[in-house]
Amino acid sequence: MSELAILGGKKAVTSDPGDMFTWPIITSEDEEAVLNVLHRRAMSGTDITMQFEKEFAKWQGTEYALGFSSGTASLQAAMYAVGIRRGDEIICPSVTYWASCMQVFSLGGTVVFADIDPDSLCIDPKDIEHRIGPKTKAIMVVHYLSHPADMDAIMAIAKKHNLKVIEDVSHAQGGTYKGKKLGTFGDVAAMSLMTGKSFAIGEAGMLVTNSREIYEHALVLGHYERFNAKEIESEDLKPYCGLPMGGYKYRMHQMSSAVGLVQLKHYDERCVEIRKAMNYFWDLLEGVPGIRAHRTNEAEGTTMAGWYCAHAHYVPEELGGLSITRFVQAVEAEGVDGIYAGANNALNTHAIFKTADIYGDGKPTRIAYADRDVRELDSDLPNSEALGAHTFAIPWFKHYRPEIIEQYANAFKKVALNYKELLADDPGNPDNIGGWHFFKHTKKA
Ligand SMILES: *Cc1c(COP(=O)(O)O)cnc(C)c1O
């Protein structure tokens, strides 16, 4: 009989994982913070949020932090604040969650997709410059699946072409690139803090910047209650105080900011343990054929933050061409729950970015105000479109518990070393691997 569980062998994972995957960690401190908001009827206020912003800015190392109702809203405000207006273009990696770029349509702007680097899975700096056009205003950098983007190269390109840089830190809060915190490289950074993320407080987003001008212009779209003459120094904004210029309402729910204040106190310490656990998992798998770590060299001061949405590289050529879907099935059969093949689909392949006329302009929204057909640049995104067959999710350990981590590592190793037994009835990869979004509620431990 085969050793592989999918062919009738014993499972590699036999222990109950307990709270190994439960996230975020909620204690009575979080509970009391939320109850306090409820008892004070302070759900819709701003006092706790402003306290959270102050602490967050201190932790982030920026002058300003501005809380939002979602990461999506914070990123839209970041785009507006760096000056994205009708007809302007941003360059964004094609592989990311949609909210790194889709809101640009609401500003009358559009998106040019760039390819990803096959190792970091972040925007490939070598694929940016030839996509710059006369209306390109900004580069949207995503530190994807916790891996920092190559900021030295990106900042050099931005400087050379006079482009703004927005960092989407939704996957990598607290991570560092060469010792410097992610979110402090660009003109502005914005991020989701929703429950599925590494910094997880409920529906919420945060924008951070060192620029007073950017901070104020980020505030006017939807923070009407703070858009007042006392707060605002920018002359172009002063005449419009009192009402939200975007017609939006973007303040953070105070149950989220109250949880945020508590989570912030413990966040770095919890991430250190996550990185210890995840690095241990990868150390155990070093040299196993077919799989490679998606991680950084921590000795250079570049870290995987809270290792949000942990993924691996898959190298089918080393496993006789075994399909990634068959590989993942076999690992799941070993007792590994919650993994899947692929990651975010390349956004350029979705019909919204090809044909949708969202605002009734009589032509696709993507090119409604653009001075070139930016869709033509989608034809050359090979790494983004091939990603699904070359990456899979791995367990996202929250605690350093070596015996359990060893069982999980063994599951992957066992499948990789016995791959030949899986080739015979491998149906091959389906046409589409991956998805547009992944959040699922964590099962209660
Ligand atoms: C989750 C996410 C967002 C959007 O944040 P929400 O808080 O869900 O609105 C933006 N960008 C990326 C990369 C994300 O993963």
Secondary-structure map:
Elements (H helix, E strand, L loop, with lengths): L27 H12 L7 H14 L3 E5 L2 H11 L7 E5 L16 E5 L21 E7 L8 H11 L2 E5 L7 E2 L2 E2 L6 E5 L12 E5 L2 H8 L34 H32 L5 E3 L17 E4 L9 H10 L48 H5 L4 E3 L8 H16 L2 H4 L22
Characterise the protein shown here.
- The chain is of the alpha/beta class and 445 residues long.
- It is built from ten helices and twelve strands.
- The chain has helices spanning 28-39, 47-60, 71-81, 151-161, 212-219, 254-285, 324-333, 382-386, 402-417, 420-423, and strands at residues 64-68, 89-93, 110-114, 136-142, 164-168, 176-177, 180-181, 188-192, 205-209, 291-293, 311-314, 391-393.
- A seven-stranded mixed β-sheet has the order 1-9-8-5-4-2-3, sandwiched between helices. It has a three-stranded antiparallel β-sheet with strand order 10-11-12, with no helix packed on it.
- Strand 6 (176-177) and strand 7 (180-181) form a beta hairpin.
- The longest helix has 32 residues, at 254-285.
- The protein is globular.
- The protein starts with 27 loop residues before the first helix and ends in a 22-residue tail after the last helix.
- The model has no long low-confidence stretch (mean pLDDT 97).
